[in-house]
Specification:
Blueprint: H1 11-30, H2 35-42, H3 46-53, H4 61-71
Helix pairs in contact: 2-3
Length: 82
């Protein structure tokens, strides 16, 4: 049986994902880490980091906490402004 496709997220959610991804990328570059290096530090695959940085997916809270720790920053620094 064919399952319906996931509905498109609302614009505000897509923008939040993009903001988080940009913050992850900027912090990763500031920490002088490659995508591979960050992926290894958080126990994930490089494609996971790519998808987060591009805003394709949003990381679960636990993964966001691992990312912040690996980058040496407070988790709040990865969250978009309200």
């Amino acid at each position: 049986m064919h399952q319906p496709a996931d509905p498109e997220p609302p614009d505000w959610l897509r923008q939040q994902r993009l903001d988080i991804g940009r913050r992850v990328r900027d912090a990763r570059l500031w920490a002088n880490l490659t995508q591979e290096g960050l992926a290894e530090a958080i126990g994930a695959e490089r494609r996971t980091v790519v998808r987060i940085e591009l805003g394709i997916t949003s990381p679960p809270l636990d993964r966001l906490l691992y990312i912040a720790r690996a980058l040496g920053i407070p988790p709040a620094d990865l969250m978009p402004d309200a």
